[in-house]
Amino acid sequence: MSEPITTPDAAEIEQRVRAVVASIIGDRPVEHTSTWRELGMDSLDLLSLVTSIEDEFELRIPDQAAMRLRSIADVVVLVSVSC
Amino acid sequence: MTATPGDGGDVIVVGAGIVGAAIVWRLVQDDRRVQWVTGPGALGSASAAAGAMLAVYSEVSAHQDAATRDLEVTTRAQGRALWDRWLPAIAAAAGVEVELTPGIHVVGSGPRDAVNLGAIRSAAAADGARCEQVAPRDVPGLKPDRGWEPSEAVFLPDEASLDGGRLLESIHVANRSHPRVTVVAERAVRADAHGTVTTDAGSVLSASVVVLAAGIDCGDLLLASGLGDLMPSVFAGRGVSVLARSSEPTPGCMRTPNRSFACGLHLVPRADGLTYLGATNRFTTQPSHEVAPTVAELDDLMSSGVRELDARLRRAEVVAMTVGHRPVVLDRLPLVGRTAEPAIFLATATWRNGFVLAPLIAELIAEDLADEPEVTKHPFAATRTVVAPQLDGAAILRAAEGIADTLLGGAALAAGRGGDLVAFLQSALSAEVDGSDGDRAVARLLERAPMEEALPLVFELLTRRRR
Questions:
Q1: Could you tell me the CA-to-CA distances from B96 to B85, B162, B166 in Å, in that order?
Q2: Cα separations (Å) of B240 from B148, B218, B221, B373, B451?
Q3: CB A44 within 8 Å of CB B461
Q4: Would strands B34-37 and B11-14 be described as parallel, antiparallel, or unpaired?
Q5: Closest to A63 (Cβ–Cβ): which among B441, B448, B457?
Q6: Residue of A48, A63, A64 with shortest CB distance to B441
Q7: If both were cysteines, with which of B199, B237, B376, B409 could B203 make a disulfide (CB 3.0 to 4.6 Å apart)?
Q8: DSSP E strands, B140-294
Q9: pLDDT in tens, A18-41
Q10: Which of B136, B165, B141 is CA-nearest to residue B246?
Q11: Using alpha carbons only, how large is chain A's radius of gyration in Å?
Q12: Which of B223, B284, B461 sits opposite A64 (nearest CB)?
């Protein structure tokens, strides 16, 4: 999951995921594979992230899948296979 | 005996905390062979962070319904009674003496503490248990800050406390030296229906029965093998505590009654002149072992401890900080015994009562193992339907009061506005619980954990939305 995203669709997904993350933690540089903890995000931030991602991409993320998300890269993969 | 994964044995016990250790100790008394998966070195995260009070009545809260309160009190009393023969037996086997400090003082200020102190006195009186009214000035070691003196205090001479860390070391020594125990000092990552446990080092252990006593991690072990539905969701009350070296260590255990979202602030004497100060209790649906105590958690704990219990702690040296996660399910009762998969047993969800209940839970597991699968003789069956509590107006009011207390931090509102903050919070929380506000993150949280304990998180989500 540390490979750079190159396909246009994935790049667009990543851009939208980054916008959601920025709405929670503010607009600052974020590595593709930075963990939520490294970004200072706690369980409530993750709750907001998951519901915002669901709204952004019109999908439903089950709790068990949500708990496995560790970084933007993980979210991009999840959204890519779900959309 | 130490570590040879794959040796085989009657039972695998996963969990190095007090509950797992107690189960191992109990099962070898029945001549069972046990493979004990302890992880690499830690003595159970929640247990290592716990105050280790053997509290029966001092844990009672006024808002509990009578049936739940009676069940909890009876169960804690049964657990407490076992300690008097359990502790000396472990100490003798380990060759390490662990002293029980008799008695717990409960001190309180203000109307909400008074209500809970009344409930403690009533519950003790109903059972004919000793609960003595004492003047706060006569509580040994109680030295609150000026203006924070408690208005009343009771002493429960039959309750007790102990050095939980020393006991854990002692029971680990006793278990490890037992010839029928094989210690596997690796971290369990998966438990399967046919009685196997896989570790992070790749070991695959097998036995006829696996007992998961790994606190909040039990669910992950089952999720990894696709058995996530075998147990209800386990949430956590994240607790931060400190060990301090004071020139005048606390001579006995003192605590406040339970408060909104706290397990009661408490001081417990520890070995070597140390004093334990605990504990925060922040509910979380997604606990992480990786996150160290935050500044806010330490600030809450230490400010309250210094103000309300012992102002001299201000000058004490902090020698250790610990974080633990109290496992809890929606009905706040333990999960004990066989699951729908006959080879998998649970011993978790002990919430604030892990230490006092540990010997009892070990007895129940031993009985459940000996009984036919369809027989469960206690109300904590792992297969029971866990019923979500009623998130009613009274619960919302308690949450609003608790949040207001936290926000004020002991300060007063403007004259004549004393009730306004609570009323406002009550109104905002009610809108969220009703779903009329439509916040999806809040809805998701309350759908998962419709509990009073989750309401401070609702408040926190609302404040973040504003930013």
A1: 15, 13, 9
A2: 23, 21, 25, 39, 21
A3: yes
A4: parallel
A5: B448
A6: A48
A7: B199
A8: 152-162, 181-184, 188-191, 196-199, 204-206, 209-212, 235-245, 253-255, 266-269, 274-278, 282-284
A9: 999 999 998 888 888 889 988 989
A10: B141
A11: 12
A12: B223
What's at A59, amino acid-wise? L
Beta bridge partners of B191: B197
Token pair for A81: 């296979």
Instruction: Evaluate whether B170 touches B98 at the Cβ level (below 8 Å).
Output: yes
B57, B43 contact by CB (below 8 A):
no
What are the per-10-residue average pLDDT scores of chain B (467 residues)? 48 97 96 94 78 96 92 97 95 92 95 94 98 97 95 98 94 96 96 96 96 96 94 94 95 91 83 94 87 91 94 96 95 95 96 97 95 81 90 93 87 89 95 86 93 94 80
End-to-end Cα distance, chain B: 56
Amino acid at B429: L
* A residues 41-80 closer than 8 Å to B (CB): 42-48, 50-52, 54-55, 63-64, 67
- Alpha carbon B130 to its chain's center: 24
Q: Which two tokens stand for residue B458?
A: 């609702």
Q: Cβ neighbours of residue B367 under 8 Å, at least 6 residues apart? A: B377
3-state secondary structure B119-145: HHHHHHHHHCCCCEEECHHHCCCCECC
Q: Identify from B444, B447, B466 which residue to disrupt to test chain A contact, counting A C-beta atoms within 10 A and taking the largest count.
A: B444
Q: Which amino acid is at B174?
A: A
ipTM value greater than 0.95: no
Residues in chain A: 83
**Widest CA span of chain B, in angstroms?**
71
SS3 label, residue B238: strand
Mutate which: A47, A64, A70, vs B, most B CBs within 10 A: A47
End-to-end CA distance of chain A: 18
